[in-house]
Every structure is written in C-alpha cells, then in structure tokens.
Amino acid sequence: MSGFSSEERATPFTLEYRVFLKNEKGQYISPFHDIPIYADKDVLHMVVEVPRWSNAKMEIATKDPLNPIKQDVKKGKLRYVANLFPYKGYIWNYGAIPQTWEDPGHSDKHTGCCGDNDPIDVCEIGSKVCARGEIIRVKVLGILAMIDEGETDWKVIAINVDDPDAANYNDINDVKRLKPGYLEATVDWFRRYKVPDGKPENEFAFNAEFKDKAFAIDIIKSTHDYWKALVTKKTDGKGISCMNTTVSESPFKCDPDAARAIVDALPPPCESACALPSDVDKWFHHQKN
C-alpha cells in the first residue's frame, strides 16, 4: 500500500470535477510536488490520471493550488480522446511521475525542442486497470521522445512493480519480446490520437524508436532537477502553482490547514450516488452535441 488516498470533489465529467490527493494522515497534498519521485531504490511513484481503456483526458492541474487532477478543457468543452481504430481509449494506464517538470525554457539536446511545461508522462503497461488518482510504484523500462506541436513530450514506459509479471520486465527489449506489437501500437496511438480533432500527426525524435531504461532514467533525473529549480523559485514557473506541504526548501510551502482551506472552498466530496455513465458514453454525447 502506498499510504496515499484520493478524494473526488463535484461530479465526474463536469467542469468543476477535481480529484485531490491525501497523505497517510489524511492531509491534502499536491500530487505534483508532495509525492516523492522515488518509492524505493530503482522504483518510482506514478500518479494515475487516466485508467486504461477510458477516454476522458484527465491531468494534473499544474496551475491550480494543490494541483488536483481535473479534466482538460479546450474552447470551453471537456476533452475526450477518440476511439482511434482499432484502440479503445488510452491503451495503458496513463499518468505522470511526481516531482518532475519538462522545462519550457530548456531546449532538449535530443529533440531540439523545449519542454511542454508538465510533469513527465508515463504509460504503465501492466495487467491491472488502475483507478484515477491512484498512486502506484513503477519500474522504468524505456522512453519515447514525442514532439507535440513543437514541444518535447517524453513518454516513459513502465510497469507496476506489483504486477504478477513485473519480474520479467527489466528493460525495453523485454516489452518487445513479451508484448509483441505493443510498442508499435503505442507509437501509432500517439502519432494519430489528435487527428480526429483536426490536428496534424505528432512527430518523434530518434525515428520513433524507444530508448532503453538507462536513457529513460537519465531523462527522468534531468526533469527532476528542473522541478527542483521550479519549486525553489530558481526558475520562472510561468503560472504554475508550486504550493506544497513537504518541500522544506521551497518558499511555496504551506501548512496542512492552508491546504485544507483550498479544498474546503470547493463543492463537497462526490458520493457513490453521483456515479454517471462511462466516460466513453459521455464522449459520444459530447460528439452529438
């Protein structure tokens, strides 16, 4: 067990919906800044934003106090990814590694493009369908260098250490061997997922080839360094909220009561009675309207 828990506020698939994270004491925290990057030696934490097979584009709200998870919005409308044939929604558990940041002021030497201003993304390939807001421990296997509208957007490939087959996966070649076609599908998905919205295909560095675990770890460490500069105000966050409760050297650190006040000002927690149809049903409704 990670010791972390989540709390939903307002109704899912609405503009007001938020998922806040709590520590083992039940105190509200930032999933961006307060969850340690490392869960153990060679094991990282991952914040699950989007469960596998779902369509609602949920993400850590980097500019909101405490950085809750919320659904992305474009032109006033909630975002859903299309069911890009032959796939159903996201084809992995999708999320981010906490305490990392792809600096938009830094031009990446591998891609020639600046960072996308978000925590580094993770595609978790294990057998379990995780829950939104779940904090899992992952083993890094490799990385893909995507270029999204001129910005560097790394995609880490990882597996939940609690997966029954985790011991068999130690580097990117194990994914190629044990899940044939999965990495090719991952490139295809990321290349085309914005096309139904009228946008061009995404591009990739390294001719869309996955780099190995050692390379991935180096990239993650560099984004952790950029995050350190961000949270200690050594670099301009350009609107990012660095409010946190644990980073002692950060001028943005607050006490638990201040964090609670942020959450208490929002709509009440979502109860089971507010359960709605699946997000793919919501997406079809959105398309028709």
From TrEMBL:
<dbReference type="GO" id="GO:0005737">
    <property type="term" value="C:cytoplasm"/>
</dbReference>
<dbReference type="InterPro" id="IPR036649">
    <property type="entry name" value="Pyrophosphatase_sf"/>
</dbReference>
<keyword id="KW-0460">Magnesium</keyword>
<keyword id="KW-0378">Hydrolase</keyword>
<comment type="subunit">
    <text>Homodimer.</text>
</comment>
<dbReference type="GO" id="GO:0000287">
    <property type="term" value="F:magnesium ion binding"/>
</dbReference>
<dbReference type="Pfam" id="PF00719">
    <property type="entry name" value="Pyrophosphatase"/>
</dbReference>
<comment type="similarity">
    <text>Belongs to the PPase family.</text>
</comment>
<protein>
    <recommendedName>
        <fullName>inorganic diphosphatase</fullName>
        <ecNumber>3.6.1.1</ecNumber>
    </recommendedName>
</protein>
<keyword id="KW-0479">Metal-binding</keyword>
<dbReference type="InterPro" id="IPR008162">
    <property type="entry name" value="Pyrophosphatase"/>
</dbReference>
<dbReference type="GO" id="GO:0006796">
    <property type="term" value="P:phosphate-containing compound metabolic process"/>
</dbReference>
<keyword id="KW-0007">Acetylation</keyword>
<dbReference type="GO" id="GO:0004427">
    <property type="term" value="F:inorganic diphosphate phosphatase activity"/>
</dbReference>
